[in-house]
Structure formats: C-alpha cells, structure tokens
Amino acid sequence: MPLYMDIHTVRGGATVDAVAQAHAADLKAQGAHDVRYLRYWVSEAEGKIFCLVDAPSAEAANTVHREAHGLVADDVFEVQEGL
C-alpha cells in the first residue's frame, strides 16, 4: 500500500495536545477506510502538522481526517521511506 505524508497549516496555531486529540480521532476512524495513520509531527511555532499514513489513496487518507475532525490536509505527497 502506498505511503503518504500530508501537511496541514492551522490558522491560529496548532498545539501538541490538540494534535494528539485529533490523531486519536483519526485512529478511531481509519479502519473503515483501510487507512493506517502511523506518526505525526507538530511545529507549534509555524502552525504546521505533518502526518505519515499508509493508505490506498491520498483521498482515503483525507477522508479519515475529514470524518474524524475536519482538519483536511493542505497537501498530500506519496513518499518512499529511506533507510
């Protein structure tokens, strides 16, 4: 299954605690779409969130975000993991 990195820009900023709650909601919603959210990173200073996701498509990954909490990614890139 493809691996994707998505990027969110949150107006008003993003806190680690708020993103942890959103990630927990993703984990609850992901199974219905054959998606696995693997990891995330937060830049509070920049209001940026980066999510690594194993998904059949970029749209499936965004569907989980939309259903779980409404924070759809600004960009989604298919990536390959390096060693």
Can you describe this structure?
The chain has 83 residues and is α+β, with helices and mostly antiparallel strands. The chain has a four-stranded antiparallel β-sheet with strand order 2-3-1-4, covered by helices on one side. It has a single domain, classed as Alpha-Beta Plaits, CATH 3.30.70. Helix content is 30%, strand content 33%. It is built from two helices and four strands.
Structure keywords:
83 residues, Alpha-Beta Plaits, 2 helices, 30% helix, 4 strands, single chain, alpha+beta, globular
Topology:
Blueprint: E1 3-9, H1 16-29, E2 36-43, E3 48-54, H2 58-68, E4 75-79
Antiparallel strand pairs: 1-3, 1-4, 2-3
Helix pairs in contact: 1-2
In terms of per-residue confidence, which ranges show pLDDT below 50 for 5 or more consecutive residues? none
CATH topology: Alpha-Beta Plaits
What is the CATH C level class, in words? Answer: Alpha Beta
Fraction of residues in H or I helices: 25-40%
CATH H-level homologous superfamily name: ORF SCO4226, nickel-binding ferredoxin-like monomer
SS content category: alpha+beta
Number of domains: 1
How would you describe the shape? Answer: globular
How many E strands?
A: 4
* Rg over C-alpha atoms, rounded to the nearest angstrom: 12 Å
Number of helices: 2
Distance between the termini: 18 Å
CATH architecture: 2-Layer Sandwich
Major sheet attributes: 4 strands, antiparallel
Strand order, largest beta sheet: 2-3-1-4
Helix-strand pattern? EHEEHE
Overall mean pLDDT stands at 95
